[in-house]
Amino acid sequence: MVYMRLATVRIGASATQAARIEGETAVLLSASDLGELMRNPDWRSAAAAESGREVAVADVAFVAPIATPGKVVCIGLNYRAHILEMGRELPSVPTLFAKYADALIGPRDDIVLPRESEAMDWEGELAVVIGSTVRRADADAARAAIAGYTILNDVTARDFQYRTSQWLQGKTFESSTPFGPVVVTPDEFDPDARITTLVDGEVVQNATIADLVFGPVDLVSYISTILSLRPGDVIATGTPAGVGQGMSPKRYLADGTRLTTRIDGIGELENICRVE
After folding, report:
1. Backbone φ and ψ of 44, nearest 5°
2. Which CATH number describes the domain made up of 72-275?
């Protein structure tokens, strides 16, 4: 399998294009985004072999790698330390909820803080991108279906999340969820990679992916027992300890807050929060 870093980029005001990132060069591909690219069953070979226009990475803007994923399936309470932080017991099965594509923004876009919420919190996460259709996948099929890994911050309206026992309304406010900047194919991704979240330069989350209760292969296998996962679908794997809701006193995002989310080997999201 070929190791690649893939992205969706924009040059100036032009339409977006999928790209293969090679050092400081972006090789533009024929698809408009990675979702379109991955709908080609032979997308891995095509992405590795295609030789399009080459542009300096400094001259492109990275946008959300998948423009309109068919599904964004999120996992709650999946890092051991975070589960303990929130006063819960380790789960026997994953906790699932959904997010809609309207919530997603690019890796450098402003996070919109809705005027209805006074408790917008950060949740840095590893995201899994699906590259082939699977249903009821065993471990081998689940592993083969993973196109790669990227970063997502599941910014959450805590006051809306806890209005009811169902979390959806706190998890999918429009233009609240940064996503990207690149999708790294899985063959060289380090399962012990460190995930770090910073608020105005202060480290608030710092963990390794190995602290996940349910890893990416487990999640693909479990979710695919319920529904088919298809190319371009996204799984947000959960957040480690260090969220604002768990602090004393509680701490939330505010207008002008700079939120940085990093994962070793992938890169970082850098977003400014703006009240709607």
Report:
1. -60, -45
2. 3.90.850.10
